[in-house]
Amino acid sequence: MRSTILGTGLLSLAIVFAFTGILASNLSWTVLSVGILTVYVFSYRRFARELESSSIKVNRVLLDKMAYANEPIGLSAEVLNTNPTAVKGDFEDVLPEDCELSAGSNKSSRILPPRTVLKLAYSVTPKKRGVHRFPGMVIRRRDALDIFEYEQMIEHETSLSAHTEKGTIDAARRMGAREHLEFSGMGRNPAVVLREFEFDGIREYTPGDRARDIHWKLLPKTGRLMTKTYRKEGAVHTMIFVDCGRSMRLGTRGVAKVDHAVDISIQLSNVLLTSFHPAGIAAFDEINVIGKIPPSLGRHQFDKIVKLLREVPSAQAAANDQTAASPQTNGTPVKGPAKILPRPSETSFLSAVESLKKAESGRKLGMGLEGGIKETLARTRGQEYLFIIVTDLVSSRDAVVAGARICKSTGNRMLVLNTYDDWYRSKKEALDVPELERMYGMLSESLKTEAALRGLGASYLRIGPQDTAPRIIRTIRRGNA
Asked: How far from 381 is each of 195, 241, 247, 410, CA to CA, in Å?
């Protein structure tokens, strides 16, 4: 550091003056060297006492209620100096790795008088969806003579939960007015929104039947009164399941599949709601269902769905399972109450995901999905359901197939939107033979899974990062899924 080098240079200069005075028998050089050493020791001890009695408090406040990816959000940070002495140095509020400073300043160089407050107002732009954590305030303190410097970290963690891009939600609201996803089916009970009466059959007349329901054309042929029966056709209850497993959150080699799944789920749910299909949402991982909103046509149903999807784990959370990286601490070896910043831990998430893909243990992964489908059907009371599963089928393949069997046996429907893994990988300049063999093997396994799902009556659509919700809706309406 700058002032550390300055302090070392001052000490070296004093030693040189002392040796020069002794060799030249010059009293003035010797007195000067002793004076310099005295100032050096006095400044060191005084700075050490200031650090030992240091008491600095930090408070950070988010100024906006909702944060979106690639949209600025305001923050206010306050630093309270409770010391009886002034604090001189550079103050910097540490930003998360995936946030950029958009306005204002998170830094300040000044002398903070005792019992006063330093206020920093600025705005940051989160570059990704997910939780961004502000670790605290870094203070590079200097003594009164600028000889020594000490860097300390005042820990004060603040979590900023950024949703997907605001344009995605606005597009979902606009899309609901022009797109329609029709999955009409026959409900055993009257639905909330009635579309039309569907002819079901005829039966013998019983007293009390309406005259307009009597099949008068059959009277001359049978000589008996017969009554036409109808079933009320209504909107199908739809449940969207979003896969939040580790493989879905892998975003280091391309577009994160979980972020794309969240955007599609937001837009599909709003299209369903505006088409008068009661829609709900659920997020699941390899173990269980981590969040669920039951299907409904309530006034605030879309807002509830958006709020739940805001809490879906992000790609960066998967890549940083260990302690997040923090700035390193440098400074003079002065002991005090300040906490030293930890060094960033280096871990590899890619190897864990690859081992998960190659695991052949035979056990069923993603049981949370199967349990979520069973729980939903247990509360249906005869209502027909459509289950839309957004998954990459890496860790949840067995559970998706099991869910398709359940839907087939209970007379419900399933649509699988497969976020195909290879389509989300970063493009390479050239493909070698091992990579081509791997891609062929992945495609073969995907085709086998598709055949198994279609054999169980489920619809299937393979999607990539360029596929949008309108295209998916039009493909489903044309019967190509």
From this structure: 20, 20, 35, 12
pLDDT tens, position by position, 361-409: 433 444 578 888 888 888 776 678 899 999 999 888 999 999 999 999 9
2 within 8 A of 149, measured Cβ to Cβ: yes
Provide the total of helices (H) and of strands (E) in the chain, helices listed first.
Answer: 12, 18
| Order of all β-strands in the sheet with 226-234 | 185-186, 226-234, 194-204
pLDDT for 334: 38
Burial of 418-457, coded b for 16+ CB within 10 Å and e otherwise, reads bbbbebbeeeeeeeeeeeeeeeeeeeeebeebbebbeebe
Q: Across residues 148-170, what is the average pLDDT?
A: 86
Cα–Cα distance between 373 and 393 in angstroms, integer? 16
Cβ atoms of 185 and 413 closer than 8 Å: yes
- Would you say the pTM of this structure is higher than 0.85? no
Q: Which of 85-89, 139-143, 192-196, 289-293 has the lowest mean pLDDT?
A: 192-196
Q: Nearest 5°: phi and psi at 11?
A: -65, -40
Task: Tell me the two tokens of residue 169.
Answer: 């939600």
Pair 278, 235: CB distance under 8 Å = yes
Q: Nearest CA to 309 among 276, 272, 267? A: 267
DSSP per residue, 131-189: EEEEEEEEEEEE-TTS--EEEEEEEEEEEEEEES-HHHHHHHHHHHHH------EE-SS
Q: How confident is the model at residue 478 (pLDDT cuts 50, 70, 90)?
A: confident
Cβ contacts of 355 within 8 Å, gap of 6 or more: none
Cα 378–chain centre separation: 30
**Opening angle at CA 328, ends 315 and 142, nearest 5:** 135
Model confidence at 453, pLDDT cuts 50, 70, 90, reads very high
Provide mean pLDDT across the span 31-56.
77
User: In whole angstroms, how far apart are CA 75 and each of 62, 78, 102, 326?
Assistant: 5, 10, 11, 20
Q: What are phi and psi of 300, to 5 degrees?
A: -110, 25
Residue 123 tokens, joined: 């705005």
Query: How far is residue 361's CA from residue 449's CA, in Å, rounded to a whole number?
Result: 18
Q: Give the CA-trace dihedral at 249, 440, 415, 250, to 10 degrees.
A: 0
Query: What is d(CA 283, CA 158) in angstroms, rounded to the nearest whole number?
Result: 25
